[in-house]
Fold:
Amino acid sequence: MSDINSYRLDRRNFLKGVAGTTAVAAAGTGLLSGTPSLASSPTLTLGDAEISVFSDGTLSMPMNFILPDRSEEEIKELLSPHVLSTETLTPDCNVTLMRRGDRLVLFDVGSGANFMSSAGQLLANLEDAGIDPGDVTDVIFTHAHPDHLWGVLDDFDDPLFYEAQYWVPQGEWDFWMDANTLENMPDERKSFVVGAQSRFEAIADQVEMVPPGTEVVPGVEAVDTAGHTPGHMSYVIHGGSESAMVIGDAISNAIISFEKPGWNSGSDHDTAQGIQTRKVLLDRLAADKTRLIGYHLPHPGHGYAERNGDAYKFVAG
Ligand SMILES: [Zn+2]
Structure:
């Protein structure tokens, strides 16, 4: 089984299995600005995979929700140099789209109309780029929080991406569908449980479970990054000589998560496991120089983790 300690599998063997020699020969990786086909962000190419990031809008969260254990002084000291508000965080929401062969794959689907008025813009942005929901062949979820899952239904509560196969981390399905989860959840997050259950039920006929370490669609490897939620999953997109990792909310803020990976995050379900996962992931991403794509990092959310003393910094790119 692969987890964040062992995801770096033998790339040659992996490519032999999934992408073949064409991808290796194609190897060119980089930013092609102005590529119109997938709009919204410049298209990244990884071998034969084209990756674009679409905005679902932004969220608004009070700082004392994100950093419940930190003093005003500590927060000021960290954020003021970056000219960021110390009261409210307004993270972007970045939905990754991958086109490879005949597959058009979305990683998460945004908030839809019923979470925050500043979010829920994915569908409009896809349509602006000429992409119809019926074109999407696969939707792969990192986890089942509202800003990642609730956009899965249309105005009639039917699956929006009606032709798609939905891929749900096994641990996420098990957790959110468990009869005890609602009862055990603090009151202010009970709506997350009700919301996840109703969406999962609505797409159940189109769902496949994703155990960690499996190849979800060709060239996409699931990596266990539990902590933010019990079954949180990240995905390595392999292509050509490089790879990129869709990290969901395992690393969720370009300043806080990188400069203070050991700080408790109020948005993590299990704060200790969240810290452990974040540290291991940052260490691996920095050592491997693997591009990451973060759901809440500044749009379009891709870049690199670089070591900076005993912490890290996010370098967009
Ligand atoms: Zn999120």
Remarks:
- The chain is about 25% helix and 25% strand.
- The pocket of zinc ion is lined by residues 145, 147-148, 249, 295-296 (CB under 6 Å).
- Residues 8-39 have pLDDT under 50 and may be disordered.
- Residues 4-316 form a domain with the Metallo-beta-lactamase; Chain A fold (CATH 3.60.15.10).
